[in-house]
Amino acid sequence: MENYIFELKMKVRDYECDGQGIVNNANYQHYTEHTRHEFIESRGVKFADLHEQGIDPVVARISLTYKTPLRGGDEFICRLNVKKEGIRYVFYQDIYRASDEKLCVKAVVECVCVIKGKLGTHEKFDAMCE
Question: CATH number of the domain that 59 lies in?
């Protein structure tokens, strides 16, 4: 993925690793989620405020492709881009090891907005995709 519009640098904590000393697969989903939340907040959108208005963005589908494992103490960069496809907001996220820019994970996360119990779009999310 090129043309990233946001990135977040993080560091692997030892407790995120399995017995082999590599990051447990489920933690990569946490990394991508944290990055999406930070991106959305950087655009002035707060999940708690949306929820109070009856607007709940939720993950509808996620796909992770593992390329190179991260290990305890590794610093990494999660980069993203987002596009609107119909009523879905599709986040394309890649995680790179900071020391050598080696691609570790490719993720595609499809989100939708549930607005007062019905699927819909929201202008604040639409604006993020422009």
Answer: 3.10.129.10
58-85 confidence digits (pLDDT tens) = 999 999 999 999 999 999 999 999 999 9
Residues paired with residue 66 on neighbouring β-strands, in sequence order: 105
In this prediction the pTM is: 0.92
Contact 57, 41 (CB under 8 A): no
> Nearest-5° angle of CA 33, CA 110, CA 98?
40
Domains contained in the chain, number: 1
- Provide the residue range defining the domain that includes 100: 6-128
Pairwise CA distance, residues 95 & 16, whole Å: 16
